[in-house]
Input
Amino acid sequence: MEADTLMWNNLSRILFVLLLATAGAAAYLYWGYGGQLHQQDANCRARAQELSLENQHLKQEVLFVNMHMHREMSRLSKQKQAEIAKIRSTRNEMIHSLQGEVAQGQIKITQLADRLSVNIVNRILFPSGKARISKQGQAVLRRVGAVLAKAHDKTIRIEGFTDNVPPGPALRRRYPTNWELSTARATNVVRFLQESAGVNPGQMEAVGMGQYHPVASNRTAAGRSSNRRIEIILAPRYRALAARLMRPPTAASGNPPHPPSGR
Output
């Protein structure tokens, strides 16, 4: 009996010690590792609040950019409409100045949005197989130049075209292929417009297109006649426009220099 009591007392002491050890371990884990978890939770909450503020700031920036883009698109749309109106006025003036040639089908004037094309058949500008401008061609180009000289904000591109017939033996010594011939004709038109019509040379470009852009079949005489032509194209000066668009917004333009700060 006494032995059983002694064994029970010893077992009770062991259980009590184990209980104390377990309680101590639990307390250590709670106050040690548990404290770290509480700190991490606090850090996560602080980071979530920071991200929420950052999100609000980004929303403000997106709103600012959208408003700025809307204003710019509206402004550019108005400029586009103004450009179209100006080129329409130039087209009407050109048609009035060249109404005889237009009526005879020697000159075709077309407008596409803010671009104007003046298509002149070669036979009224150049003698057959020549790059020198004829007297009749000079008279026509003077009237064309009088209108072009007023288009100060346009690029004026003069393109020379030929049919697919190679230059004849006499002409070939100076112009080996239609590339050289078309380029010489375009260049001569540019020089005449500069020297005799006062068109700003800084606005003009001379380009030889050769035989590779026909508007009709080269199988017929009428088709080849249509393909031998000079095209004068008026278009917006994209380099100047691009330079304007690259300038940062200023207070004078009505655009705020920076988005509102949310920080």
